[in-house]
Amino acid sequence: MEQDLNQAQTLDREDVLAKFRNYFFIPQIDGKDSIYLCGNSLGLMPKQTPQYIDQELEDWRHLGVEGHLHAKNPWLPYHEILTQQMANIVGGKPSEVVVMNSLTVNIHLMMVTFYRPTKTKYKILVDYSLFPSDRYAILSQLHFHGYGPEGMIELSPDEGTEYVSRETIEHIIHTHGDEIALVLIGGVNYYSGQVYDIPFITSLAKKHGCAVGFDLAHAAGNVTLNLHDANVDFAVWCSYKYLNSGPGSLSGCFIHEKHHDDLSLNRFAGWWGQNKTIRFKMGPEFDPIKTAEGWQLSNPPILSMAAIKSSLDIFEEAGMQRLRQKSLQLTQFCLDLLGTKSKKYTIITPLKDEERGSQLSIQMSEKDKSVFDALIRHGVIADWREPDVIRIAPAPLYNSFEDVYHFCQIFTDIIGS
Ligand SMILES: *Cc1c(COP(=O)(O)O)cnc(C)c1O
Description:
Elements: H1 2-14, E1 28-29, E2 32-33, E3 35-36, H2 49-63, H3 67-70, H4 80-90, E4 97-100, H5 103-114, E5 123-126, H6 132-144, E6 152-154, H7 166-176, E7 180-186, H8 198-207, E8 211-215, H9 227-230, E9 234-238, E10 251-255, H10 302-318, H11 320-338, E11 345-347, E12 360-364, H12 370-377, E13 380-381, E14 383-385, E15 389-392, H13 401-416
Parallel strand pairs: 3-13, 5-6, 5-7, 7-8, 8-9
Antiparallel strand pairs: 1-2, 4-10, 9-10, 11-12, 12-15, 14-15
The structure holds pyridoxal-5'-phosphate.
Pyridoxal-5'-phosphate (PLP) binds at residues 102-104, 131, 133-134, 186, 190, 215, 217-218, 238.
């Protein structure tokens, strides 16, 4: 183990992103930095975020309503200063990306537009082990259109595994494609950590005339994405996991440019989607902005957006390519130390680079939470998913190789004892 620690320290010394750890507050346990491996659930707080929020509070204090036009960053177009950087994170054009609402709200809004069932083609293909909020949203949309749960087809993993292979995806889409109106799955599966091949799934589904959307809650800021080129119809994601923008912060939304002018699409509208040149004429006609912004509803919460701006500035400085590279090294180091399978546990995350992100899901053979509870007592903040999975997600912005080393040592100590 001594040798492994040396190796971790060497990797940290060689890490070109090492300085970014100091950009973040690391939660303390018993007066020491915790080993925080929960950035897939709630990303850590950048030290500069209070300054960004304070700027808006100051402007509100001194300017009141005048801040809409005269704040340092005027509030009226505030969301626009997020667009380019957010578009870079997901590989979209700026016109295709908007930050608005929260994630589940955007799932609903996008389904209003892109779920257009017909008598024979009304089903929705969803992820394996679907996240509860997505399930509730999708089932309620089906119900709204007069369909029951039989309208939902779930991906299923290959037998005896938690892995959904390309062959399985191909088989399901070939078999059911003609009945499927919408494919709506994760970019990264929140349970297993599997990264899906978005261009592959999209082109397959398009051959069958399905609309295609992705929930990127676990993908945005984690893996490199290219939504525009993949020809995805829409995508949604939150900003508080890998994107470090604070609890409950706003969601990102991608709508492919080919849809921007299509006024035949349904949408649930609001005044922030209105043509900016006439918005404040307050007229009765809705003339939507011809970009993703045309789907906005409300004037947005500036304080949350300030936290997003702080985070996006850090992402821009670090760069998604470099982050992805370090992320793969961190998980590889962890896999080297833990192995992929023992009597006590199995790593259910796919091992190929292109099929895993920052998260490793460790399935415990004995289905009890005691190992997880002991981790917390030893200063490790990870995440437990019923019935038997510990999820860890070293985040390349603030986790070090030494974090991974200490986690592995604590984990194997607990298991051995
Ligand atoms: C985190 C997460 C959510 C959370 O949705 P909110 O509307 O932000 O509460 C939804 N879906 C998935 C897949 C998630 O990972």
